[in-house]
Amino acid sequence: MKKLTFSIGGIHPADSKISRDCRIEELPLPQTVYVSMAQHLGAPATPVVAVGDKVLAGQVIGQPSGFISAFVHSPVSGTVRSIAPRADLAGRPQTHVEIAVEGDEWAEGIDLSPELITEITLSREEMLERIKNAGVVGLGGATFPTHVKLNPAPGSKAECLIINGAECEPYLTSDFRIMLERSKEILVGVAIMQKILGDCPAVVGIEENKPEAIEAMGRALSELPYSNIRIQSLKKRYPQGGEKQLIDAVMRRQVKSGGLPISVGAVVQNVATALAVYEAVQKNKPLVSNTLTITGDCLPADRQRNFLFRIGVPLSFIAEQAGGVPDDAAKIISGGPMMGRAIANMEATTVKGSSSLLYLTEEQTRRKPEGACIRCGRCSDACPMGLEPFLLNRLIKTGDVDGLEQNAIQDCIECGCCLYSCPANIPLLDRIRVSKAQVMGIIRARAAAQKK
Amino acid sequence: MTVTIIQTIAVLTLLGLLLALVLFLVAKKFKVEEDPRIDEVEKAMPGANCGGCGFAGCRAFADAAVKADSLEKVFCPVGGNDVMKKVAAILGKEVAEKAPMVAVVRCNGSCQNRPLVNDWDGVRSCKVKAGIYTGDTGCAYGCLGCGDCVAACAFGALSMDPETGLPVVDESKCTACGACVKACPRSIIELRNKGPRGMRVYVSCVNKEKGPVAKKACKAACIGCGICAKTCTHGAITVEANLAYIDYSKCKLCRECEALCPTGAIHGVNFPKELDKEAVKARINERKRKAQEAALAAKEAATKEVANEKTDI
């Protein structure tokens, strides 16, 4: 089979999938969980429970407060202790519902049996409703509400459903493990999404560094009655899991600046999202758990873990379950080393999109002193969006906002390839991120003014 | 040889004269009429081209001032009243005097007051830091300490105090152009009335958290208790979202709020004497006692009147 990849830019960081052989274990429940109301892209959910209420696992505790928003469910059974602001990963106060855990009782109508249900009996609308009511959001990182993405605006048609199993970030192995252990469920999830999108073909893209996953998914597919799904091997290259890069790799189509994937007929969903869709539609189980990797070079091999966690669990509790934070860890990252964010607050809790606790050493994270740009152009070669980061950096210094917009700073996907490849250690991404937000603000303000 | 030299000089001289003539004619024909007052006004300006007035520089300001009907909306914060008077004289327009302003840093989260909870090893830029997280202290509102304001100041009026980690304003150099206000991603710096002989009172905190949370993050935080607002006899203090704010146009510099603030978040600066907290507290208590007595007396008088009325009937 020919291996595909995207056409421009990209880098090849070391793989470091240390925890790849660790089976998924279920994380024990802590005494208290704190469920954030802002676990998805868009407007935070509004709490619908009151202090003192008894809740069951899987019961709705937050309802969407806008079109782009999602339901939040209780991950445990217990009593609501408080509804108050609490610091998230970055220290920003968000509304959290505090629940004291009592037993593990689930709300009625949720099928917890491990039995695989392959038959898809519901209609398109019923399935979309279930996905919405289960609070499913994209688990590839952006946490965009899935029901919105699966229901493209009238006039646009999905020609291909791309399932992202690339997991191109080093260290992370949660997607890899679910592809090995829950392949069939993922494929049923894919079939459900295909049906919702009008029976378009589906491609599951997996990077070549995960041959076991490619094999397991292929074997599972041969045992299921779906003919319109294809497992596609991809060359190893970061950021293959980027939405636009994956579309380019699989379909050879490029999404225009400011455009959505559906404009070229593509819908991209992560493998973990496919699993969540399966559970929502076939098992009526809301999204209250996900898989998380605990890894790092400084963590001993016997303490590497892949945990099936519930949302709302404090990160410090998870770290304890894997034997505590190693002494050499200088920085703890949530997400991969390329795009993840350093955790400033270990009391923050897991959210739907949590994917890892990654311990990095002082040596791995120390910033090197910034030198002068020698115009070698490595950043431009590495940029998968075809931007010129060195030029953007210069425009940022002079404050040329118009120039930044003309040079498409708003197309930056913040993958960090420029920063990774810069021999002068210029913090390109840090600066670009700030100015990108500024330019996006100007573009949005202009669009709003035009609407009026 | 001599002939060549003479020829060269002659040709070049002729060419020079011819081109000078062309330039003269072109300059006459395409002359742009410009109000000569623009030049005059520009000469009167400080010439810092800082943009504090909202225009692209001193020339742009002069152009706007000449074209404007009144000088209400054009003001040079750097030159202040002196320059504006000169400008008004040149243009023959009226100008209202404005009180001089100064940049005030509203954060007292020094290293002692506000302990670090994590290490920031990224770019030394407040904007970058603010975009990523709430900072290396427990306070999500206070100074980030990377000095974006210092870099923005064109007059060298700001510097970082290495001991407190906070920016310090040199009042003699600050022109109140507002560049630091725009540069601060946390909106800590405010332009405030300079006050008589530089005396002014302000709340040195922007934390909007509830009292206990704010206090936990920083010893010198405003906890929104509202004692200052209750004490103020001039109605200058408002408490909104757990944060007190002193309206400098109403403040009479009595310093009562400063004496009562339990966390020391209210600062009075440039006063000749140090604040005697006990004396101020005694004064407040005396006033309260008198007010109570007066209220009691009024009540008694009222009841007597009612009694009198009753006997009348």
Spans of chain A of at least 5 consecutive residues whose pLDDT stays below 50 are none
Q: Which percent band covers the strand fraction of chain B? A: 5-15%
Q: Unreliable runs of chain B, pLDDT <50, ≥5 residues?
A: none
Shape of chain A: globular
Which percent bin holds the helix content of chain B? 40-55%
Oligomer: heterodimer
Q: Which CATH top level class of the largest domain in chain B fits?
A: Alpha Beta
Question: Which radius of gyration of chain A do the C-alpha atoms yield?
Answer: 22 Å
Structural category of chain B is mainly alpha
- Supply the helix-strand structural class of chain A: alpha/beta
Sheet-strand content of chain A, in percent, reads 15-25%
Overall mean pLDDT of chain A stands at 93
- Corresponding CATH superfamily of one domain in chain A: NADH-ubiquinone oxidoreductase 51kDa subunit
Give the domain tally of chain B.
3
The string of secondary-structure elements of chain B, in order, is HHHHEHHEEHEEHHEEHEH
Model description:
The complex is a heterodimer of chains A (452) and B (313). Chain A has 452 residues and is α/β, with parallel strands linked by helices. Among the domains of chain A are: 124-283, NADH-ubiquinone oxidoreductase 51kDa subunit (Rossmann fold); 378-451, no CATH class. Chain A has helices at 124-133, 146-149, 174-181, 183-196, 211-223, 243-251, 271-282, 315-321, 362-365, 378-382, 389-398, 401-406, 417-421, 428-451, and strands at 24-26, 32-36, 46-47, 54-55, 60-63, 72-73, 78-87, 93-101, 160-165, 202-207, 229-234, 266-270, 289-295, 305-310, 329-334, 341-342, 356-361. Chain A has a six-stranded mixed beta sheet with strand order 1-14-13-17-15-16. In chain A, α11 (389-398) packs across α14 (428-451). The longest helix of chain A has 24 residues, at 428-451. Chain B folds into three domains: 37-91, Electron transport complex subunit B, putative Fe-S cluster (3-methyladenine DNA Glycosylase II, Chain A, domain 3); 101-269, Alpha-Beta Plaits (2-Layer Sandwich), CATH 3.30.70.20; 282-313. In chain B, β6 and β7 (243-246) form a beta hairpin. Chain B is elongated and about 125 Å long. Chain B is mainly α. Chain B has helices spanning 2-29, 36-44, 58-67, 80-91, 126-132, 148-152, 179-183, 211-217, 227-231, 256-260, 277-312, and strands spanning 101-105, 158-160, 167-169, 189-193, 200-203, 237-240, 243-246, 266-269. Chain A binds chain B through residues 87, 89-93, 341-342, 344-345, 365-367, 427, 430-431, 433-434, 437, and chain B through 117-118, 121-123, 125, 127-128, 131-136, 140, 209.
